[in-house]
């Protein structure tokens, strides 16, 4: 999946989420220049948020490994 235009990211992954009967998606983007990215790392970065009632729809991972949730317009 292409990173969001203007987000200063060069790599992104769209993950499918399932909780019981509920299904959704989350986009995990990596800030440029990203050195090592993978679907596995994207999943790992999303794990801390999965216990929330509403997991993030979009997460940006900085070069230092920190992440921030980015609101998605309704």
Structure description:
The protein has 74 residues and is mainly beta. It has one domain (9-69). 11% of the residues lie in helices and 38% in strands. It is built from one helix and four strands. The protein has one helix at 39-46, and strands spanning 9-19, 22-31, 58-61, 67-69. Strands 1-2-3-4 form a four-stranded mixed β-sheet, covered by helices on one side. A hairpin with a 2-residue loop joins β1 (9-19) and β2 (22-31). The chain is globular.
At a glance:
The protein is mainly beta and 74 residues long.
Please list the strands of the largest sheet in the order they lie side by side: 1-2-3-4
Provide a count of the helices: 1
Which spans have pLDDT < 50 for at least 5 consecutive residues? none
**Based on the structure, what is the oligomeric state of the protein chains?**
single chain
- In N-to-C order, the SSE pattern is EEHEE
> Gyration radius, to the nearest Å?
12 Å
The SS-based structural class is: mainly beta
Keywords:
single chain, mainly beta, four-stranded mixed sheet
